[in-house]
Structure formats: C-alpha cells, structure tokens
From TrEMBL:
GO terms for molecular function: dioxygenase activity; ferrous iron binding. Keywords: Aromatic hydrocarbons catabolism, Dioxygenase, Iron, Metal-binding, Oxidoreductase. It comes from Sinobacterium caligoides. The lineage of its organism: Bacteria, Pseudomonadati, Pseudomonadota, Gammaproteobacteria, Cellvibrionales. PANTHER family: GLYOXALASE DOMAIN-CONTAINING PROTEIN 5, GLYOXALASE FAMILY PROTEIN. This is 3,4-dihydroxy-9,10-secoandrosta-1,3, 5(10)-triene-9,17-dione 4,5-dioxygenase. The keyword Oxidoreductase applies. CDD domains: BphC1-RGP6_C_like (cd07237), BphC1-RGP6_N_like (cd07252). The keyword Metal-binding applies. Transmembrane segments: none annotated.
Length: 299
C-alpha cells in the first residue's frame, strides 16, 4: 500500500464557530467558498476545496484523519490488502463521498482505536486562496500533493500500532525517540515513532505512546517563511491563546515552530523550513534530543 499524503481531518466541536475564528483569524486559513452551507465549518488552505472540516458534537476532539491514495487502482489494491490482513473496514456512503469531495473511501480503526479514512480522487476546486491575515501560501506541495501537514496520534498500544502502519498501510520509518519524565530508573518512559508516506515531507504521521481524550496530540501546518511564523505567534499572544511550546527548531525534521492550543483540546504546531527527504537514499534514525533550541513545553 502506498499512501500519498494526509488529505483532510474531521474534527468534532461543541462550537464550530470557535474553529472558524481560530482557523481564519489566527492560523490564516480561509472559510472554504465552494463547500455547502450545512452548519459545518470548512477551512481551506490550498487548491483543495477544504482541509479541515469541523462538525457540531458533544465533545471537542479529532474524529478522524483522511489519508490519500494515488488512484482507483491503488485504492482497490489497498482494500484487498486490508482484507488479506484481516482488517475490518466500512465503505463510505454516497453522502460521505459528497461531503469529503472524493471518489471513494473506506473507514477503519488502527490498533489504538484512532479512526482513519483511506480515499482516492480528491476534488481540486482551484478557488483562489485568500488568507484573511495575509499568508501568501501554505507548504502543501504541487496541487496539494504533500498534504496539509502532519498529525501526531495517541498510540497507547505503540508496538502493535506502529506495526500496523508499517506492515499493513505501508508507511515508512523515519525516526524514533523515547522520553523519560523522571529520574526514576523504573520509569518506563514513552515512545514516539515518526513515519513518512509517498511525498518528501519528513513525516506525515507520528505515534505517541500515551492516551489522549482529544484523540490527537497535535496537528502541524507549515508556511513558507519565518516571518509568517512570527506573525502567527503575535496573533496567538494578542488573543491570549495558550502557548503549548515556545518557538524552537526540531532536530529530526529541522522545523522552526511553536505550538499553541486549539479549540479541539489538542495542540497546533505552526512552523516553517521543514526538511524534505529523498526516501531512496534515507536511513532511519534514533534521536535523543528533540530540538536544537527552544521548544520549552509549558505543561
């Protein structure tokens, strides 16, 4: 199986309008002009009709992540591989395909009970992206082929979940870390695996060995310049949005970024300068230092 990118996320919110304000006037996406007025919030950042869909619900959490496949042939092959591996899935309904603006999809859960969708045939609406805060463009590749960014999912069952993404879904290993939060020799710590798909982005998925009620550790979005990162940091501070981590530069993907709270109960990493990799020559790594400088987490 060859996943191409993280195509969209579906988020449940007790008040979707909070995401509209945060997504447009803080992050710099735009309200999606070609999506229906159906009570949901759709946020656009490139040539795709939307990347974030926020629906009204009883909790604030990430509902699912949508991963794009290359085409119908790859999609049909993926279903056969899921069946051969004994992985159960359900087909998207006609209404869901229309809502996602895709040709076809299947929905399943990984071993840590994260819901994902595999799909093919995303629309391109080519509606001009006009950021309400002046961002020229986000880093999503050509016609969005690098996806919206990356997602870090909770994986309490880390080993079996990592094996699922590697051996069933075909994700590639990039890097791994292991964190200990005390000096106690008996502290088992928590693991973190970084995984790539079929595009140059350093990682599209990471798996963190901990449960998260919000269904997500963080989402990452990338812009083109450090100035845009600074402007966004100013907006976050002006609106008194909690800073989850200060500005810093990661070791493995070289991203210069900060983290802030979202209305979804998880964090957003907003950065620039992320490493792009030629996977034909790459050797997976083990990192013991998460950042060269900065990234002081605030609790």
């Amino acid at each position: 199986m060859k996943v191409k990118s993280l195509g969209y996320v579906l988020i449940e919110s007790t008040d979707p309008q909070n995401w509209l304000e945060f997504g447009t006037n803080v992050v710099g996406m735009m309200a999606a002009p070609t999506m229906p007025d159906d009570g949901n919030v759709y946020l656009k950042m490139d040539a795709r009709p939307y990347r974030f869909a926020i629906t009204k619900g009883e909790t604030d959490r990430l509902l699912l992540s949508g991963f794009e496949l290359g085409g119908e042939e790859e999609f049909n092959a993926a279903k056969q591989e899921l069946e051969a591996a004994g992985v159960s899935f359900e087909h998207g309904t006609a209404e869901e395909l229309q809502a996602r603006r895709v040709k076809d999809l299947v929905r399943l859960q990984d071993p840590s009970e994260n819901t994902i969708e595999l799909y093919w045939g995303s629309d391109l609406d080519y509606a001009k992206f006009i950021s309400p805060v002046g961002i020229a463009e986000f880093e999503t590749g050509v016609s969005g082929d690098m996806g919206l960014g990356h997602v870090v999912l909770p994986a309490p069952a880390l080993q079996v979940t990592h094996k699922f993404y590697r051996e069933v879904l075909g994700f590639g290993q990039v890097d791994q870390m292991h964190f200990k939060f005390t000096d106690d020799p008996a502290d088992p710590g928590q693991g973190l695996h970084f995984l790539h798909v079929d595009n140059p982005r350093h990682h599209t998925l990471a798996l963190y060995e901990a449960p998260m009620p919000s269904g997500c550790v963080h989402l990452m979005m990338e812009v083109k310049t450090i100035d845009e990162v600074g402007y966004c940091l100013d907006r976050v501070q002006e609106k008194e949005i909690p800073i989850v981590s200060t500005l810093g530069r990661h070791t493995n993907d070289e991203m210069i970024s900060f983290y802030c709270a979202t209305p979804g109960g998880f964090a957003l990493e907003f950065g620039c300068g992320g490493r792009q990799v030629d996977w034909s020559t790459y050797t997976p790594t083990v990192s013991t230092l998460p950042s060269f400088w900065g990234h002081k987490f605030q609790g």
